[in-house]
Amino acid sequence: MRITAGELRGRGLSVPDLPGLRPTPAKVRQALFNILADVDGMRVLDLFAGSGVMALESLSRGAASVISIEQQRRATRNMELICAEWRLSDAWQIYTNDVERALTQLSGQHFDLIFADPPYKQGFCEQLPQWLDQKKIGCDRLVIEESARVEPQWPAGWLCEQSRRYGDTTLHFLSRSEV
């Protein structure tokens, strides 16, 4: 797997062979960042980080900082190795934790962008906006990756601005709705 654009473009990263780990394909990553247009200087939260490729793409394209949360220790260990090898420790924080618990520790913080790639078809995509509200975590934009076979019902207070399908993957772009 390779970084598709920016300062780190072309760098390859290893992905551990773990059950349920499915890194976002290059085509989907490129489409996502084309839609976002500019992440320069942004503070990014990467939930269900898996391989860390979304954090790396964000940093490569100029994000100021990224916090990655992943529950599987082998996955975070792999991200930590990449972080050290590529000398990104000033900008990339990596935590091994359950996402809901990790959000409690981030309570009250604000992020320009939150990206989440939870396990498909398990309801996490509908729960995540509620967790953000409960933990008082602000964001300008929330992007959730989910199976194209799922039609999420977003909680009150959240607006899905657009959804884009790429094969079996759909990216949902959400923001808080005006009250």
Automatic annotation (TrEMBL):
<keyword id="KW-0808">Transferase</keyword>
<dbReference type="GO" id="GO:0008168">
    <property type="term" value="F:methyltransferase activity"/>
</dbReference>
<dbReference type="GO" id="GO:0031167">
    <property type="term" value="P:rRNA methylation"/>
</dbReference>
<keyword id="KW-0489">Methyltransferase</keyword>
<dbReference type="GO" id="GO:0003676">
    <property type="term" value="F:nucleic acid binding"/>
</dbReference>
<dbReference type="InterPro" id="IPR002052">
    <property type="entry name" value="DNA_methylase_N6_adenine_CS"/>
</dbReference>
<dbReference type="InterPro" id="IPR004398">
    <property type="entry name" value="RNA_MeTrfase_RsmD"/>
</dbReference>
<dbReference type="Pfam" id="PF03602">
    <property type="entry name" value="Cons_hypoth95"/>
</dbReference>
<dbReference type="InterPro" id="IPR029063">
    <property type="entry name" value="SAM-dependent_MTases_sf"/>
</dbReference>
<protein>
    <recommendedName>
        <fullName>Methyltransferase</fullName>
    </recommendedName>
</protein>
